[in-house]
Amino acid sequence: MNRNETLAQGVLAREPAMLSQAITLAESNLAAHRAQAQDILQRLLSRTGKAMRIGISGAPGGGKSRLIEALGLRLIEQGHRVAVLAIDSSSQPGGGNTPDDKTRMAQLSLRDEAYVRHSLTSGHPDSDTRVSRESLLLCEAAGFDVILVETVGVAQTEAGISKMVDCCLLLVSGADDELQSIEKGMLELADIVAVNKADGNTINDAGQARATSTCQHALSLLQPASSWKPVALTCSATTGDGLDELWQNVRTHRRQMIDTGELVERREQQRISWT
């Protein structure tokens, strides 16, 4: 059995070390490593495609990591296996992740049912999409049925990530300055907008409700690309309030996409774009 076959079998056996090695090859800029990654993916493609793929974006410091950890732990309690692919702007070129990255989502990282991977953003959205999509497929082959892709909160990157996920979640803090700074393009990509009340967030319940209403009004003025009507809701990554409603909306969105055939169409367009 050659090295590529060994790694492919290790991924199928749900061995985290083997999955990490395969993703490292996919992320490499070396031609030999890229060729290895493509060979491994070809061996695994028949075992991919069944996971729920969710992109989570928002301004840096808005509580994305805390929300992902809280949601991931909640989903594990419900019997899911959760993989998190975080595209980090804070990672250092050539030096891996910063110490801060290693402490993010610490509780989730310790769970056997979870896999958390931080990757350095290249600054080019197409490249980031390529790496994340290949990593996503490898995670699917490893048996993870929910894939959460966390972005750096840059508009161009959001547009790229939207080409590889089924559902786009935009997280905002509800602060007036952040609401005013949300780009129309980011709202157009969002299937769900969550107004998050996180630690250090001075927004009160009335302010959070007002921010949610503002987001919902803005969404109603847009022409969605699918039959799904985007929704805005409130949640708290700290207390867990609203997480069940958030997940219910993600599931409802998925069911509608399946029923209308839009999920198959979207993934086919993504596959062609990736190829």
TrEMBL record:
Its EC number is 3.6.-.-. Keywords: Hydrolase. PANTHER family: METHYLMALONIC ACIDURIA TYPE A PROTEIN, MITOCHONDRIAL (PTHR23408:SF3), METHYLMALONYL-COA MUTASE (PTHR23408). Belongs to the SIMIBI class G3E GTPase family. ArgK/MeaB subfamily. It comes from the Bacteria. One of its GO terms (cellular component) is cytoplasm. SUPFAM superfamilies: P-loop containing nucleoside triphosphate hydrolases. InterPro entries: GTPase_ArgK, P-loop_NTPase. This is Putative GTPase. GO terms for molecular function: GTP binding; GTPase activity.
